[in-house]
Specification:
The complex is a heterodimer of chains A (286) and B (192). Chain A is mainly α and 286 residues long. Helices cover 64% and strands 4% of the residues of chain A. The radius of gyration of chain A is 50 Å and the shape is rod-shaped. Chain A starts with a helix and ends with a helix. Chain B is mainly α and 192 residues long. Chain B contains 8 helices and no strands. In chain B, 68% of the residues lie in helices and 0% in strands. The longest helix of chain B is centred in the middle third of the chain and has 23 residues, at 71-93. The chains are: A mainly alpha (286), B mainly alpha (192). Chains A and B meet through helix 2, helix 4, strand 1 and helix 5 of A and helix 2, helix 3, helix 5, helix 6 and helix 8 of B.
Chain lengths: 286, 192
């Protein structure tokens, strides 16, 4: 049969459609060329036989390819990319998973404009919220409160002398017998002990209360201010200890604030204070 | 993205900016180059080595790519040269390069379960015959058949790779198919 095909070709040498046959078998003809060749096929049996034979051969080769080659895994190509002059063998670029940042940037590059804008706003809102949260944290509140109390304490101490409202400023409303104020008072003149007491976990509010009670106790001791003053040991300058934390240092700094007992008093004022002292004594139950 | 660029644009990026961009070229063509090398060399391990060597050679000669031809053509040309080099080495070791007895080593094909035993045997014989017939073709004809059947390249692409006129490519394929037709007819296993 094959020899007949050859003979037919020899018998019809004008049938020079070899290129068209292979183009037709592999469907690489445009519409016009295909139409012309199909017209020829209607009149040329040899070309028809060749097309049939070549199509079967092509089918067999594809079957063999699918059977033998299709199951083989593609080899992993390793390219010796140079990094800073040093040859580094890495996987193919396409196989790299890429960093998260690269994937994110690729994702954003494909995202529509509105999504990019929304992402930007969301990031900005998150940053603002985080900053607000940090600003509104309890530590910040306590620090600001301690600072505020410190200022208030200074003002209240100075006010009674000028305006004569000492009794108001030393109202024992917040006297708390449960407090260890005596110890604190004594420890005031001994900064080192204060350090031991004023731990970082001291409640700020309690500290404020203690400070106010200190004022009360100080005024109650004004009965013997004269003798007290004489017997009053000199306050040693409190040296700031570098090992102290801010809490302790603030407490110690507070102790440097002059007290009512440190100021010289007139007899009239002394009388007023005595009344106050009596009032205090009555309230405190001494 | 790199995946949206043409092969020529990626090569330009690899030459000018980022050599790692060549990895995209590898990703696109590694399977086809492997198919070509396998069809040319017949052995999986040799085909893998030839594929690796072809891409490494292409990477090292990126700066020499002038852009007057397609990147795919350039890669195929490099791969064909790699295969021919390996064949020459093998030829020095074996007596005949085109010896049909070399291709007589039978390959065990996996049998599909839906065929009857008689059909399975016939199918295996047919596949074996085709394998031997293709390997028995002359090198230049086998190359065209492999590119056309394994890689499914167009005639124009084959013409670019082999640097020959389009008519010559078609003529060679015509000749190859005729020879295969004769060989398969000889074994009476032609599928019609």
């Amino acid at each position: 049969m094959v020899n007949k095909m050859f003979d037919s070709r020899k018998q019809n040498p004008n049938c020079n459609f070899a290129e068209e046959v292979v183009s037709y078998v592999y469907d690489e003809m445009n519409i016009a060329e295909k139409a012309d060749f199909q017209t020829h096929l209607a009149e040329c049996s040899s070309c028809v036989d060749e097309i049939a034979a070549f199509s079967s051969v092509s089918f067999s080769i594809k079957e063999w390819r699918d059977e033998e080659f299709a199951g083989l895994k593609t080899p992993q190509i390793s390219i010796p990319y140079e990094t800073n002059g040093i040859s580094v063998s890495v996987e193919a670029y396409g196989n790299n998973k890429g960093s998260i940042f690269e994937k994110l940037s690729e994702l954003l590059s494909f995202s529509p404009a509105f999504l990019k804008t929304a992402t930007a706003f969301g990031t900005l809102a998150l940053a603002i919220g985080l900053a607000w949260f940090l600003m509104a944290s309890p530590n910040n509140e306590n620090q600001s409160l301690a600072t505020k109390d410190k200022k208030e304490t200074k003002e209240e101490i100075s006010t009674p002398i000028k305006s004569g409202k000492a009794e108001e400023s030393v109202q024992p409303e917040i006297v708390d017998n449960e407090n260890t104020e005596p110890e604190i008072i004594e420890n005031v003149r001994q900064p080192e002990k204060v350090i031991a007491v004023a731990t970082p976990k001291i409640d700020r509010q309690r500290t404020v209360v203690d400070k106010k009670v200190l004022k009360v106790k100080n005024t109650s001791n004004r009965k013997n201010n004269s003798t007290r003053d004489k017997n009053k040991p000199e306050l040693k300058p409190i040296q700031k200890n570098k090992n102290l934390d801010q809490t302790d240092q603030e407490y110690i700094d507070f102790q440097e604030i002059p007290r009512l007992t440190d100021f010289a008093m007139d007899e009239s004022e002394e009388k007023e204070l005595r009344l106050t002292d009596l009032f205090d004594d009555g309230e405190s139950g001494d | 993205m790199v995946t949206d660029l043409t092969d020529e644009e990626i090569v330009k990026i690899a030459v000018d900016d980022d050599p790692n961009a060549f990895g995209e070229i590898v990703k696109r063509w590694e399977r086809k180059i492997f198919a070509l090398c396998y069809g040319m060399l017949k052995r999986e391990d040799e085909a893998k080595d030839a594929t690796q060597d072809a891409f490494i050679a292409a990477y090292k000669n990126l700066s020499r790519f002038r852009g007057d031809a397609k990147v795919s053509s350039w890669l195929h040309r490099i791969a064909v040269n790699q295969c021919l080099t390996r064949k020459r080495r093998e030829k020095t070791r074996s007596e005949s390069f085109f010896d049909e007895s070399e291709s007589a080593e039978e390959k065990v094909f996996t049998a599909p379960t839906h065929l009857l035993p008689s059909k399975l045997a016939e199918r295996n014989e047919r596949l074996q015959a085709v394998r031997q017939a293709v390997h028995a073709l002359p090198g230049d004809l086998r190359q065209v058949v492999i590119m056309k059947e394994f890689e499914e390249m167009t005639f124009q692409e084959i013409s670019d790779v082999m640097d020959m006129p389009l008519s010559t490519v078609k003529s060679r394929l015509y000749t190859a198919l005729k020879q295969l037709r004769l060989k398969l007819a000889r074994t009476s296993l032609e599928v019609i």
